Amino acid sequence: MKILWITSSGWKEGGVENYLALLRPQLEGLGHTVRILSSNDRPDMPHFSDVEYATPSGPLRPLGYSINPSAYRTLRRVLAEYAPDLVHIHTIGHASPAILFALRDVPTVLTVHGPEGFIKSLLVHCLPMSDFVGAVRSKRHLRFVGWAKYVYHRCVNGPLYWLGFRNVDLVITPSVYMQTLVARDGYANVCIPNGTALFAHHPLSATELTPTVVFAGRLETYKGVDCLLRAFAEVLKTIPDARLIIAGDGTEREHLEQLTRDLSLTAAVEFVGHVGRSEVENIYQRAALAVMPSTWVEAFGLSGIEAMSVGRPVVASRVGGIPDWLIDGTTGYLVPPQDTRALAGAIIKLLANPDTLQAMMHNARARAEAFGIEQHAVQILDLYAAVVRQVRSKR
Question: Which of 86, 140, 210, 357 has the fewest beta carbons closer than 10 A?
Answer without folding.
Answer: 140
